[in-house]
Structures are given as structure tokens and as C-alpha cells.
Design goal:
Helix content: over 70%
Mean pLDDT: 75
Largest sheet: none
Number of helices: 2
Radius of gyration: 16 Å
Shape: rod-shaped
Distance between the termini: 33 Å
């Protein structure tokens, strides 16, 4: 998935992970460890999605015609 030009599959998977992590951090939180792990998962997956879109934008700029 990481070698596709726009990495859309990886971004979609991370989007699903963000939703699952939000559920784990919120509704299913029974202990401080669960809250910590859920919050960490949300932060890391969000960072991964944003990074994927930034890389995609940079790759698209490489193919634009100059001038």
C-alpha cells in the first residue's frame, strides 16, 4: 500500500483506525490505560493520515507543469 502513487488505501485504513480508536478512547473506556491507549491511537493514526495527504500533495506538485 505504501508504494501506490497516492497512498489512498493507506489513508483509508488509517481513517478506519481513527474511528475505532475514538470508540476505544471514549465509549469503551473502563480504565486509565484504555483511555491512554485509545488517545495514543487516535493521535498516531491522525498523524499518519495527515502525513499521507501531505506526501500525496507533494507528489502531485512534482507532476505539474512549470511555467
Amino acid at each position: 500500500l505504501l508504494h501506490t502513487p497516492l497512498m489512498s488505501e493507506a489513508n483509508a485504513i488509517c481513517g478506519i483506525i481513527v474511528v475505532g480508536a475514538l470508540i476505544a478512547a471514549g465509549a469503551e473506556a473502563n480504565s486509565p490505560l484504555t483511555i491512554f491507549l485509545g488517545t495514543s491511537a487516535v493521535a498516531l493514526a491522525t498523524f499518519n493520515v495527515v502525513g499521507g495527504y501531505l506526501v500525496t500533495e507533494r507528489m502531485l506538485k512534482m507532476f505539474k507543469k512549470k511555467g
